[in-house]
Structures are given as structure tokens and as C-alpha cells.
Design a protein that fits this description.
The chain has helices at residues 7-18, 22-28, 34-65. By secondary structure, it is mostly helical.
């Protein structure tokens, strides 16, 4: 069994920056139970949302510092 299909492998792939791509390994893994797959999916979605939200906030801060101003949508 390749390492990325095990519990620690899925966590490592997620934290190494692949985020939502690690969902492929979660759902194809024969080692991880269905309930754990659901929990991993929810966790990965939350981590990805937090990362994107933080990145967007930093982008707006840099734009404001450079005089571009933050764009409101």
C-alpha cells in the first residue's frame, strides 16, 4: 500500500500544500473507513478555506500598502 493512502500520508499530503488534491487519496484509500473519510473531507475543506481566506487577506493588505486599495466585491 503506497504511503499516501494511509492516515499519516493523507495528513502529510494535505499539509505539504496539496490541500484539496489530497481528497483523491482519501476517497481511494482502502485503509480509511467511511466515517473517517467524511471527517477528513470536512477537515481538508476547512483547512483549504482558511488558507485561501488568509491568502486573500494578505493580498488585500499588500494592495492597500502599495496604494492600490482593497477592492470590495
Amino acid at each position: 500500500m503506497p504511503w499516501q493512502y494511509k492516515h499519516w500520508g493523507v495528513i502529510a499530503v494535505t499539509l505539504l500544500g496539496l490541500g484539496p488534491i489530497s481528497l483523491i487519496y482519501v476517497w481511494r484509500s482502502p485503509v480509511i473507513s467511511r466515517n473517517a473519510k467524511i471527517a477528513y473531507t470536512v477537515g481538508i475543506i476547512i483547512i483549504t478555506w482558511f488558507f485561501i481566506s488568509s491568502l486573500y487577506g494578505m493580498w488585500n493588505a499588500v494592495q492597500a500598502m502599495l496604494g492600490g486599495g482593497a477592492q470590495q466585491y
